[in-house]
Every structure is written in C-alpha cells, then in structure tokens.
Model the fold of this input.
Amino acid sequence: MRSLRRLTTRPLLLLATAGVAVVLVVGLLWLHAGQGDCPTATNGNRTIFWTSAGGAGQQAFHGVPGLPPSSVSSPSVPAVAGGRILVTLANNRATLTVPIGTMIDVELTSAAWTAPVSSDPNMRPRLSSSSSCDGVRASFRVQGNGRIEAVTHRGSTGGIPDIVFRVNVVASP
Done:
C-alpha cells in the first residue's frame, strides 16, 4: 500500500509544481506586458533636433526642434529657490552654478526618457527617480562638479539617441 501511495504522490507533486511554475511565468509575462502600454513616438515625419552646444560625442543634431538660429543663444538657467532648482528640457546644455547641498530636480516630459544619471554618483547622488509614459523625474544632491544626463529615442535612428539632455553642474562653496 505504501509503494502504491508513493507512485501516485510523486506524479501529483510534480504536476502541482509544474502548475505553480506556469502560473508564475504567466503572471510575470502579464506584469511585463502591462509596462509596455506607453505609446511609441515613432512617426515617419521625424524632426531633427539641434543644440547650440553640439551633441554627445560626434552627434551634432540634438536638442531643440528645427534649424539652428542665426545667432547662437545660451540655454536658460533657472534660479535656486529654497535650496532647490528645477531643470527641464528648456535648460538642456545649461551650466548650473549652485551651492553645495543644493537639490537639483530634473523633470523631462513629452517623451520616453531614460532615468537621469550623474556622471559621478559620489558628487551628485541621485536621491529619487520615477518614470511614466509622460517622462521622468529625478532628484540629485550637489556635492561636487559634473553632469546630469538622460536620453530619449523617438524613432529608429540605429541606436543613436534623438535627444541627449545634459546639464553641467558647478558646485560653489
């Protein structure tokens, strides 16, 4: 009787384990598919983007839509208020001179951006970040000089980002 019980228990145990594994895999696939609900920004009518400061490496066309203006103007620089500064795409390529300890809040909208990163996490640690279909938000604390960067791919460009967002940070005592 015991050997009969072993013969029927073992296949049932294997079947139950396989069932649990299938449920877990289906659940993970369902969760992963739910994160792909953001519409892609691909269209056949791409605009080339340009910034006065050039692009990352050899990528000269990134930043603001349209052709370069006849006179190059520097990006706007927001003011520090209450120990914080908010930067957006309008501040792309700006140099921020801020006191050590200032919080830099990055808010990039209207595209699927990568999470903003610091060129040196020890000098500008990222304290928080969040993303949605509308863009990304991140906060950094300034402890030294460097850059904060993010990119977006709005179409098929062979791996080259359509827009490279970068602000240069200069820490002042």
